[in-house]
């Protein structure tokens, strides 16, 4: 069930209305049933698989809270191995086999493994697997660290994993932020409803009006990069930077808004990342729930920045290589993560260049950071590593720079530019704007009308659903 669909709008209205119509003691059950239906609307069979791991981690959390010494740590390790193993089987089975085959080939070993599609016909990657796997792992880790009491109510714990607003694309929540909220009596509040509906409307606008319109340029250009000149590729790359931001932050806005209408407060996942003036600041603003997850559960346990510059650089590079792999089973994602790791290492050790950059005016620093991020996005978006190299090679050839030829009409291109300007103006001057009570309903009606009038509708799912 896509957020940008009539199915979801009807589902949201029905669930939210029922939520406030029943006793608060049973609202967790309503949300659990609704969340199960929401997930089953994608691939029903995978709800059973998710249920198995919910049960396993629920029991693991209780065991961790009861055990002591090495047994307690062993239970945590078992939980993490089970979750990572489940994720690896579905997401990295073919990737691992292909790379093992490539490594053994020069040694004379003829290793030709069957693909997952051949071994298990019809088996697909469960939607949002990386997100709810990491959320489950955060629960057992926080219980082990003593930051969260083990949840005894199996239904509440299941809702923590399944909560439909953030189930398939985050934000990746921590148990101490949301578990207690499921036990709270959330009285109806007009300000929560007003804020939530406006966030949903703005998220829908970013998705169907901006992101999906920019996709009319990025999709055909990235599908055949060798057929386009350098200026066309540059525009497509810049448009993709805006597209992925509006697509993913639009989902997060809808998720936060949907939860807020019922009184729940989820973690903010984006804070105008393209206004960042350094790569470090960019990662403090982009996909915050994932970047803090890797910081707290990988980077700091590895030693963080506590053991000298060299060790810090190794830790940074390792974390970002893992982050790239988290995004997809392809070397292009690993390279994307590695590029950001190198950016951060250069920022940390390249004192002279960094100091010179910091002397530039703020807008120039932000523009420079945006260009660096956009160059890395080429690897993320390209259909293959080879296509990414074709794009970069073309951009580096002065002879290939000419007037752009784009797969949309001039009027559509102007509209794209105006929408991007609107996005930056809104985030510059009205980042937290919510219409006042008196003007709310006309403003919401206007936003809805603009989504209908300017939106690009179809089967365009959110980019991060594939992760």
What does it look like?
The protein is mainly alpha-helical and 467 residues long. The protein has two domains: 29-184, no CATH class; 191-454, no CATH class. It has 19 helices and no strands. Helix 2 crosses helix 7, helix 3 crosses helix 7 and helix 10 (230-261) crosses helix 16 (362-381). The mean pLDDT is 90.
Strand content: under 5%
Structural class: mainly alpha
- Work out the helix count: 19
Whole-number tally of structural domains = 2
Shape: globular
Assign a percent range to the helix content: 55-70%
Taking the sheet with the most strands, its summary is: none
SSE sequence, one letter per element: HHHHHHHHHHHHHHHHHHH
Average pLDDT figure: 90
Uncertain regions spanning at least 5 consecutive residues: none
Distance between the ends: 16 Å
In terms of topology, how is this protein built?
Layout: H1 6-21, H2 27-40, H3 45-66, H4 69-104, H5 116-119, H6 129-145, H7 154-162, H8 175-178, H9 190-223, H10 230-261, H11 279-285, H12 288-299, H13 308-327, H14 331-349, H15 351-358, H16 362-381, H17 385-395, H18 410-429, H19 437-454
């Amino acid at each position: 069930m896509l957020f940008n669909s009539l199915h979801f709008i009807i589902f949201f209205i029905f669930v939210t209305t029922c939520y406030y119509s029943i006793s608060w003691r049973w609202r967790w059950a309503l949300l659990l049933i609704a969340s199960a239906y929401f997930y089953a609307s994608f691939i029903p069979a995978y709800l059973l698989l998710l249920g198995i791991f919910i049960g396993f981690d629920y029991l693991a959390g209780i065991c961790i809270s009861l055990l002591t010494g090495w047994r307690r740590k062993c239970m945590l390790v078992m939980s993490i191995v089970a979750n990572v193993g489940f994720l690896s089987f579905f997401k990295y089975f073919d990737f691992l086999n292909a790379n093992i085959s490539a490594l053994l080939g020069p040694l004379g070993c003829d290793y030709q493994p069957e693909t997952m599609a051949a071994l298990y016909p019809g088996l697909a990657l469960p939607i949002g697997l990386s997100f709810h796997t990491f959320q489950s792992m955060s629960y057992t880790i926080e219980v082990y660290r003593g930051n969260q009491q083990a949840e005894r109510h199996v239904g509440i714990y299941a809702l923590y994993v399944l909560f439909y607003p953030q189930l398939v694309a985050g934000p990746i929540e921590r148990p101490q932020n949301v578990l207690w909220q499921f036990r709270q009596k959330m009285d109806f509040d007009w300000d929560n409803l007003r804020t939530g509906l406006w966030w949903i409307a703005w998220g829908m606008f970013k998705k169907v009006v901006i992101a999906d319109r920019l996709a009319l340029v990025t999709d055909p250009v990235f599908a055949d990069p060798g057929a386009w000149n350098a200026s066309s590729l540059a525009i497509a790359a810049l448009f993709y930077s805006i597209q992925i931001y509006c697509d993913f932050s639009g989902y997060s806005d809808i998720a936060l808004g949907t939860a807020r209408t019922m009184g729940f407060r989820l973690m903010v996942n984006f804070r105008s990342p393209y206004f960042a003036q350094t790569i470090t600041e960019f990662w403090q603003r982009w996909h915050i729930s994932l970047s803090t997850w890797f910081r707290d559960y990988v980077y700091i346990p590895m030693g963080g920045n506590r053991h000298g510059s060299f060790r810090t650089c190794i830790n940074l590079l390792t974390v970002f290589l893992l982050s790239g792999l988290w995004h997809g089973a392809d070397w292009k994602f690993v390279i994307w993560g590695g590029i950001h790791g190198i950016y951060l290492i250069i920022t940390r050790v390249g004192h002279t260049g960094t100091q010179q950059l910091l002397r530039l005016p703020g807008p120039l620093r932000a523009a420079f950071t945006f260009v660096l991020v956009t160059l890395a996005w080429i690897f993320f978006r390209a259909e293959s590593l080879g296509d990414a190299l074709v794009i970069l090679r073309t951009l580096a050839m002065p002879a290939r720079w000419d007037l752009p030829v784009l797969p949309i009409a001039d009027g559509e291109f102007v509209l794209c530019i105006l929408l991007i300007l609107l996005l930056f103006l809104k985030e510059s001057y009205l980042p937290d704007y919510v219409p006042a009570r008196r003007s709310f309903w006309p403003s919401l009606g206007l936003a809805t009308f603009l989504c209908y009038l300017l939106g690009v509708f179809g089967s365009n799912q959110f980019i991060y659903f594939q992760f």
